[in-house]
Backbone:
């Protein structure tokens, strides 16, 4: 399920290049997910960490570069949530207030310290370095299911970037983390995202209840299990 034109498994992550993905103090390979152990309690809205250097690239596909978000990336993150087109199926197109987005951004920064190797990653084009949005592999709300997802700026739509990034994270979840299954959920009317999930290897599984809503559900099972 690698990006078009690249053999399966040829996307590059820090783990493939010899750098451990797990945080310092956790042995390499000791991945944690709901399928392996109980989930720790969510933290509150603690203060954001001090400004730090831009995080290094974590995963590359044919055209995309994914890296961790850093404190200096808030304006990129906020661009997505204030765009009416991007927010069409989340808030009916209403831009999110800056303070609400700031709290969500703080949770994104802290997420990897709670759940090793999961989270949301800043995505940019390899050829221009232009920010296009984010991709995620994380728990779906309060459930024990791990979901693949994304949020891209309108200028990045229709170019295959969503499928390329989602495919790479599905491969990572199965090949590197050993997850048993990965899901994707969408608003019932979001046909474009439903097509992306199916192109990324997830099958239509009907409906599911996530985020306290009835959503369209797509599922991929680990082929080696």
Residues:
């Amino acid at each position: 399920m690698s990006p078009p034109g690249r053999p399966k498994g040829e996307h590059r992550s820090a783990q493939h290049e010899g750098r451990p993905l797990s945080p310092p103090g956790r042995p390499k390979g000791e991945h944690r997910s709901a399928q392996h152990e109980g989930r720790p309690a969510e933290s509150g809205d603690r203060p954001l960490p001090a400004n730090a250097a831009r995080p290094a690239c974590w995963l590359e596909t044919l055209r995309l570069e994914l890296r961790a978000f850093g404190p200096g990336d808030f304006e990129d993150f906020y661009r997505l949530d204030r765009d009416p087109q991007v927010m069409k199926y989340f808030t009916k197109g209403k831009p999110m207030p800056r303070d609400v987005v700031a709290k969500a951004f703080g949770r994104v920064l802290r997420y990897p310290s709670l759940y090793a190797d999961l989270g949301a990653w800043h995505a940019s084009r390899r050829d221009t370095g232009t920010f296009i949005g984010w991709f995620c592999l994380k728990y779906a709300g309060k459930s024990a299911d791990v979901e693949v997802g994304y949020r891209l700026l309108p200028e990045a739509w229709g170019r295959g970037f969503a499928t390329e990034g989602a495919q790479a994270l599905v491969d990572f979840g199965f090949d590197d983390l050993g997850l048993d299954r990965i899901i994707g959920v969408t608003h019932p009317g979001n046909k474009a995202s439903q097509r992306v999930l199916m192109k990324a290897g997830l099958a239509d599984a009907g409906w599911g209840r996530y985020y306290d809503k009835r959503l369209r559900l797509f599922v991929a099972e680990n082929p080696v299990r």
Notes: The radius of gyration is 17 Å. Strands lie at 12-13, 57-60, 64-68, 119-125, 131-139, 146-152, 181-186, 203-210, 213-221. The domain at 53-180 is CATH 3.40.630.30 (Aminopeptidase). Residues 1-48 have pLDDT under 50 and may be disordered.
